[in-house]
Amino acid sequence: MPQRRNKRVAAGSNKGGVGKTGWVEMVAAALAEMDRRVLVVDVDPQANLSRRMGRPYRKEAPIVTVSEVVKANESGCAADAIIPCGWGGIYAERIDLIPSRFDLDNRISEAAVMGARQRLARALEGVDDDYDFTLFDCQPSLGHLTQLALAAADYGVALVEPEYDGVDGAVRFRDFIHDEINRMEMGNLDLRFAAAIPSLVDGRLAAHTHHLGTLPGIFGEEMVWEPIPLRSVVKDAADEAQPLSALGSRGTEMREVYKASAERMIKEFV
Known about the structure:
Number of helices: 11
Mean pLDDT: 95
């Protein structure tokens, strides 16, 4: 069987509200703008990523979601759930999505079933080979749903809000991946922690400046990527379910920021 060439990256933290979803959607957009094909997998029952990318779940027009994919537990079945993102232009051409919805929570009850952690990895077998990257948006937890994504991923990256709780949540995510027993139980010994990405950084706050300075000592200097500043335009794009490019010149600064993350992924995830 030929080796899969694309790279799978799970964005996570053991704390909510640190910018995981924003990073996934905006980096996907940046990769598309750099002529890369991206599959985005929403592994959070809040389904915020699905809505932001123009694919909210609607009862009157149901679609297959990651919940059905995981429940099916069949090799390659994720293909049935892939749809273009709801943005237009090059984004619809280059970004596909496996959406989520609230009932993904039901999969948690399957955690004790033999092989349950490998269900998403099994579902993706042969499905995302033609993409350059597969990005997983994990829920803010180290529980079963996050482990589904990590079991399928090559790399884990932590979004780090530079506050005590934000750093602590990222450290727990890193340590979970570093633990060989966890990787063994997920059936993914090759998984590695690849980056700590400072997020929602407010340069006006002394606490943020302080915690930014501690990150190289905690994660290793080479692991700390360029920070993602806090900007209202990112929230505006999320509310409007649009990429930053749709907001014109207001989005220029942050497009460059997320492009830097995308370029680093292309360079380092080889």
